[in-house]
Design brief:
By secondary structure, the protein is mainly α. It contains four helices and two strands; from the N terminus they run αααββα. The chain has helices at about 1-5, 10-20, 30-50, 80-95, and strands spanning about 60-65, 70-75. It starts with a helix and ends in a 9-residue tail after the last helix.
Length: about 110
């Protein structure tokens, strides 16, 4: 399964998805605009670390978002690289689990 997650085609599709969704930078400060360059530079190292089982997840950036009632809620923002990897996993496992879900769940 890991081999499919880190397959170059799957990672490219995940990268395109994250870029299209835009979003904020995480704790590393890498914006979606910079992601293509940064991810391309470290892709081989990431793949190898994941395959060897020693990949270290980056911390999540906490941002307080104001709510309508005057309170705030904490939003966790992963790094853009983490979002690519999360998307790659989702793309790999979704076809296996999708048939199990109800037609009415989204």
């Amino acid at each position: 399964m890991i081999t499919r997650v880190v397959h170059p085609f799957n990672l490219q599709k995940a990268l395109e998805h994250v870029i299209a969704n835009k979003g904020s930078a995480g704790v590393d400060g890498v914006s979606v605009r910079e992601l293509l360059k940064v991810f391309s530079e470290k892709k081989l190292q990431l793949i190898e670390a994941i395959k060897q089982g020693n990949y270290q997840v980056q911390p999540i950036l906490g941002i307080e978002i104001p709510k309508g009632n005057g309170k705030t809620r904490l939003l966790g923002v992963p790094t853009t690289t983490e979002r690519v990897l999360q998307q790659a996993v989702a793309q790999t496992i979704a076809p296996h689990f999708e048939p199990e879900f109800s037609n009415y769940s989204y």
